[in-house]
Amino acid sequence: MDIQQLRDALTQSDSSVRLKAVLAAGTHPDDAALDVLVAQCSHEPDFYVRDMLTWAITRLPRDITIPTVRAELASPIPQARSQALHTLSKIRVPEAWPWIFPHMLRDDDDEVVRVAWRLAVAIVPEGSEPELADVLVSQFDRGNMEVKTSLARALASLAAWYTPALDLVDAATRSGDLGVRIHATATRAIIHDPEIGFAGVFAEAKRSLGG
């Protein structure tokens, strides 16, 4: 498949056609396809095609993919930013820390910020854990249950090896803001037992705190 064929396939309304085209692009990597693949990430509506796009991009040389993907972090399109973050997590780019911290951990878009939290915990440099923990706990009571779960899981992952994060979560359970107290209390529960479901402990925290 040449580049024009790839472009044409990605305009098709049938997601299976787009999926097959991206699979072909990843199976037979061509540097010239990078811009087309990255551009598609910003507006591709199908989850499976987006996931395949990330895979296809990671099949290309790092020296060209990383600068191109990094540029998408500044896109005004939220999906472009979230896909760029996801791709960086798959490429494993520790140098991405200053590209995302702290602004992308407070992004206005909930999907972007969820991916940013996960990536930040994975690549935080030694010595920057306190700053990361501070930013994460500042986001307590943000968003819907999916967003709250993502933040709690990010903090649980961080606390698994950076124990002072638990102290910050404990402090948040005494916040004057009821929503923060509830979220922090539920987060503390999954830090102690990562196997339990967050929605259940959140509901319990809400009942016990009178939320």
Automatic annotation (TrEMBL):
Q: What Pfam families does this protein's entry cite? A: HEAT_2
This protein's name: HEAT repeat protein
According to the entry, what is the taxonomic lineage of the organism? Bacteria, Bacillati, Actinomycetota, Actinomycetes, Mycobacteriales
